[in-house]
Amino acid sequence: MADLRANFLGIKSPNPFWLASAPPTDKQYNVLRAFEAGWGGVVWKTLGSQVKNVSSRYSSIDYGGTKMMGFNNIELISDRPLDINLREIAECVRLFPDRAMIVSLMADNTREKWHELIAQVEDTGAHGLELNFGCPHGMTERGMGAAVGQDPEIAKMVVEWVMEKATLPVITKLTPNVHSVVPTGRAAVEGGTNALSLINTIQSVTGVDLDTFVPNPYVAGKSVYGGYCGPAVKPIALKMLTTIAQDPVTAPLPISGIGGVSTWKDAVEFMLLGASNVQVCTAVMKHGFRIVEDMCDGMNNWMDEKGFKTLDDFIGKSVPTITHWEDLDINYHIVANINQDKCIHCGLCYIACEDTSHQSINLTFGNPYNTYSIKEDECVGCNLCKLVCPVDSCITMVEQRKGDEYLNWKEFQRRGLPLNDH
Amino acid sequence: MPILNNRLTAEQYEQNFSDIHPPFESREAALVEANRCLFCYDAPCTKRCPTSINIPKFIKQITTDNVKGSAYTIFDANIMGGGCSKVCPVEKLCEGSCVYNLLEEPPIPIAKLQRYSTEKAIAHKWPLFQRKPETGRKVAIVGAGPAGLSCAHVLSREGVDVTIYEKEAKGGGLMTYGIAAYKVTPEFCEDEVNFITSLGGIDIKYGQELGKDVSLADLQANYDAVYLGIGVGVARQLDIPGEDLAGVEDAIRFIYDIREKGYPSIPVGDKVAVIGLGMTAIDAATQAKRLGAKEVTIVYRRTQAEMPSTEVELNLAKLDGCNIIWLASPKEILGENGQVTQLICNVMELGVPDASGRRSPVETGETITLNVDMVIKAAGQVPYEALVSSNQLNHWSGKIAIDSNCATNIPAVFAGGDCVNGGKEVVDAVQAGKDGARAILNFIKSE
Ligand SMILES: Cc1cc2nc3c(=O)[nH]c(=O)nc-3n(C[C@H](O)[C@H](O)[C@H](O)COP(=O)(O)OP(=O)(O)OC[C@H]3O[C@@H](n4cnc5c(N)ncnc54)[C@H](O)[C@@H]3O)c2cc1C
Ligand SMILES: Cc1cc2nc3c(=O)[nH]c(=O)nc-3n(C[C@H](O)[C@H](O)[C@H](O)COP(=O)(O)O)c2cc1C
Ligand code: SF4
Ligand code: SF4
Ligand code: SF4
User: How many CB pairs under 8 A join A and B?
Assistant: First the structure.
């Protein structure tokens, strides 16, 4: 049995799975249910000055028969009275002292308001604070949320205000609605933040209703950009996470990974790319809190198989493998190979390669089954056929190096080697 | 041992003859299956559909809620795609070659998806096709079965006016009169015919029999071309003693009556023997059982390896509780007071392989006797040999001979479907109709 216990800035939780600041962490009722289900910690739905929400608030992307591949919302921060939230936070901490309780904050844009809010929250017994610099709708108009996260100067200033007052560890949550998350991340570090978390939601239009002609979500004949999250954003979140994990200024800080985490596998990927723990929102909004059981179980089994005893044994392990294009080995070459025993003759590899790649697959007509084979000399090793093949390990990529030694692009150019030789 | 009608209650009949391949309950259910389709390239399922419906395309169209487009894709290749989705032996056609079979996974339910789109199209009377401008050409078609209707539709789309001469009072051919009631309803068959003719330019003259009410010579004189889609008619005689006893029935007649007269008025025996093991035999046996016969026994002179019906069909009969006696060939029917009482069969064994490698059954000299009160003959159908030869059409034992252009030996007379192939499936007849129409269009143009 591997040890799943997590320690994030000294905040302990029985496992690295936290609920992200969102409706699932909006009140005592949900949070107690989450703790009962086994979640390691929660980031309480962002507190600030009270707001008013609209309906509808959510829309989503279905793909290939799967619902909610991408999810989008135009919800604001907590719309419940602050004193009720504070009382409930304290109650949850009292009932489940072994779980992490982080409170997300977004005060009005003055030093005093931030200080006031921090003082109130610290009285609850919570273990940490998360600064919401990301909320992309509603708040930005008032110079809050993403308006802060998109301007490193302002972000740094707000973090400084917070650090003046806070006695609890502070996590700064970054918005992805920027060219690079690194400048704001660095600014937060300079401002003194103890940790970073990312990503918040990505501005988006999920689609247009083909009957009403109004984009989703629909609010009385109008719509606005919403924040995108769920499985569809995971690749973007992972990329942003990696840039933070590789940057010399931000890398030393613990990072909480967010964005499309739905399974233990996703969580492991985030952690391999530098996250110390993960936060989940959309996946529980789709399936409820019970998914944490498999998340713990799956991660545990994987760690046992790999011989990892604690989370620290693998956190960040994959970060060094992401390099620059110029440093890739040009002499590494692979070609596709089709296992004829496994092939079901669907022709998907053929048509993909024929129409869109390098015409490297032979078709021999048959009735009703055609036979497909690779023209090894034509194959550039792009991998497309393998990706489209519906049968597990039917197409494999076989290594056929062009040369023994490692050769990168800079060296290639320096030697004036011929382009387009394959 | 009486032959009786009205054996069951109205609810029992209703239940016994309800759809054996029910449609999808919901859009979601259809989408789950449609989304499983891999969208194969040069798809094997399409190659195994006699009408070459672009199956991956129509399924993809379902996944995008383009049901109209999907219906068009189906009907463009097979105007009886609605009926075919209910009656095709898909396990040996499209679904039998779906690549999922090679993964040992259930194939895509192609026919059910086909039904999903086509039923909507027919129910909503979507006007999917438009005729090209009138060409002034006229073609006569004999027989409003699948072959004739399919031929008519292609011709009319090309701006040719079509008149169909049909001896029965309804269109659809064996689709309407021959297919088991739990596969298609008479209402569906009527809607299907109306859907096809709603294109315009197709006039069906009912109660007009070739050889009686009209002659081939008249048709040749009055039309630019003639297409014969008359199907096969009569059941093969067994040529054994006792065949004329009361209680010996022809399967086609029996099934026809079920479709025409309503379940309660069809008499069946307590103990019924069905002779043969093709689709017709299965349909007759299962329907006899569903009409309330106590015991139904199928008698087949070869073994399961040689049976013409598919495994799926055989299972249908087995699930209905029909018995099967393999390697038994009817020898004589005995009776009392003119009524069937017993069927005596020769016990057979498989002989040495003949030139074609097929092992024919030979008699062992032993016999078995079955106590029965009804015998249904389903040992194949016989073409209209007299009609065909009296019109000087070249033929093979009554099956009209055509060349690679679907043309008979008589100028401007074409033929296709069961009357040419001796009896296959609806989907083959539909393709034959398309081929015939193409040939006729070429012929008219070159005239
Ligand atoms: C009992 C039975 C069950 C079957 N079950 C299935 C099944 O489940 N699935 C499947 O795919 N196929 C099935 N078939 C086969 C299928 O019905 C035929 O292959 C198909 O109907 C052939 O179409 P066709 O147009 O060639 O002939 P038909 O359907 O026979 O149509 C011929 C038409 O011509 C008319 N006609 C005949 N002679 C004349 C004349 N002299 N003048 C004017 N009109 C005339 C007939 O009345 C009829 O309307 C079954 C067949 C039988 C007998
Ligand atoms: C309905 C909804 C409300 C949210 N509200 C907040 C919020 O109040 N504060 C915050 O920091 N993030 C909020 N988020 C963002 C999530 O915390 C999280 O960063 C994002 O959803 C990405 O994670 P996911 O892909 O697991 O959903 C909200 C997300 C959703 C879907
Ligand atoms: S995609 Fe895979 S299964 Fe399909 S033809 Fe190619 S190799 Fe065979
Ligand atoms: S017509 Fe019949 S064989 Fe062809 S695709 Fe449809 S169900 Fe399958
Ligand atoms: S073979 Fe099966 S999976 Fe492939 S296109 Fe046809 S129905 Fe779809």
Answer: 43
Which of B57, B99, B108 is the best substitution to test chain A (most A C-beta atoms within 10 A)? B99
Answer whether B138-233+383-446 and B236-380 agree in fold. yes
Q: Where does CATH 3.20.20.70 sit in chain A?
A: 6-313
- Contact criterion met (CB below 8 Å) for A240 and A183: no
Q: Which residues of chain A make contact with B39, given a CB cutoff of 8 A?
A: 348
CA distance A346 to chain B (A): 5
Given CATH 1.10.760.10, say whether it is the number of domain B22-124: no
Q: Which residue has the tokens 């889609």?
A: B229
List the CATH code of the domain at A6-313.
Answer: 3.20.20.70
- Just give the CATH number of A326-415: 3.30.70.20
Q: Which amino acid is at A351?
A: I
Task: Report the atom number in ligand 1 closest to the C-alpha of B424.
Answer: 19
| Contact indicator for A137, A175 with CB cutoff of 8 Å | no
The vertex-B171 CA angle with B168 and B176, nearest 5°, equals 95
Q: Mind listing the pLDDT tens digit of every residue in chain B (447 residues)?
A: 578 888 999 999 999 999 888 999 899 999 999 999 999 999 999 999 999 999 999 999 999 999 999 999 999 999 999 999 999 999 999 999 999 999 999 999 999 999 999 999 999 999 999 999 999 999 999 999 999 999 999 999 999 999 999 999 999 999 999 899 899 999 999 999 999 999 999 999 999 999 999 999 999 999 999 999 999 987 788 899 999 999 999 999 999 999 889 899 999 999 999 999 998 999 999 999 999 999 999 999 999 998 999 999 999 999 999 999 999 999 999 999 999 999 999 999 998 888 877 788 999 999 999 999 999 999 888 999 999 999 999 999 999 999 999 999 999 999 999 999 999 999 999 999 999 999 999 999 987
pLDDT in tens, A222-270: 999 999 999 999 999 999 999 999 999 999 999 999 999 999 999 999 9
Ligand (nearest to CA of A371): 3
Beta bridge partners of B342: B334, B371
Q: How far apart are CA B278 and CA B377, in angstroms?
A: 11
What CATH number is given for B138-233+383-446 in this structure?
Answer: 3.50.50.60
By Cβ distance, the residue of B31, B38, B47 closest to A346 is B38
Structure tokens at B336: 């009392």
E-assigned strand segments in B28-185 = 138-142, 161-166
* A64, A344, A348 ranked by CB distance to B41: nearest: A348
Per domain, the residue ranges of chain B are 22-124, 138-233+383-446, 236-380
Residues in chain A closer than 8 A to B113 (CB atoms): none
A370–B31 CB contact, under 8 Å: no
Beta carbons of B42 and A64 less than 8 Å apart: no
Rounded to the nearest 5°, which phi and psi values hold at B11? -65, -40
Which of these, B186, B175, B176, B177, lies nearest to B84 by C-alpha position? Answer: B175
CATH architecture of the region B236-380: 3-Layer(bba) Sandwich (3.50)
The DSSP H or E segment spanning B10 is helix B10-16
Which part of chain A is CATH 3.30.70.20? 326-415
Ligand 5 mean position to B59 CA, how many Å?
9
C-beta A200 within 6 A of ligand 2 = yes
Element (H, E) at A70: strand A66-73
